[in-house]
Write a structure and sequence with these properties.
single chain, 161 residues, alpha+beta, two-stranded antiparallel sheet, 5 helices, flat
């Protein structure tokens, strides 16, 4: 960070490297799993301050596992880093946003009973057929409107208007 560069003469990673979604799927394939599935939840959280964000990251165990990292960041450096982060990223209500991606991956151990991909050219429908079918749906007449009940309910004679 800017504060660490000023005080330490450079920066050191303070969190572990982040995984990319495509790398998670590739990891399954390279590891020998079949039918890999990757899903992602993106969560945004607003913290009272940068210090609250850092405290939450520590509780999550998100400190750097890098063995080549520089040592402990002193109190002065940590406070200066928090102040810079707060000034750069704080929202109008003074909260500090952070966005997390939770990556879920699953795969199957290879087995002869697993479904196999079909060979090229064995499809029973083409993309042209799909496009034409979707186009028909878009150009179709809308369904007739159903009578809507009056917002006040049935009229005095019990009939809908």
């Amino acid at each position: 960070s800017i504060a660490e560069m000023e005080r330490e003469g450079g920066v050191s990673p303070r969190t572990s490297p982040l995984a990319r979604v495509r790398d998670a799927g590739s990891l399954l394939s390279v590891s020998g799993y079949n039918l890999p599935v990757v899903d992602v939840d993106t969560i945004s959280i607003r913290y009272k301050s940068a210090a609250h964000l850092v405290a939450h990251l520590r509780r999550l165990g998100e400190s750097s596992a890098n063995v080549n990292r520089r040592g402990f960041l002193g109190r002065d450096g940590a406070l200066a880093t928090a102040a810079v982060y707060q000034s750069l990223f704080a929202e109008s209500d003074a909260t500090v946003p952070a966005t997390y991606q939770i990556i879920y991956i699953s795969g199957w151990s290879p087995h002869e009973s697993q479904q196999k991909p079909l060979g090229r050219g064995t499809a029973t429908a083409s993309f042209k057929d799909l496009r034409d079918e979707i186009g028909k749906g878009l150009n179709a007449a809308p369904p007739p409107e159903e009578e809507e009940e009056n917002a006040l309910g049935p009229q005095e004679d019990g009939k809908k208007k």
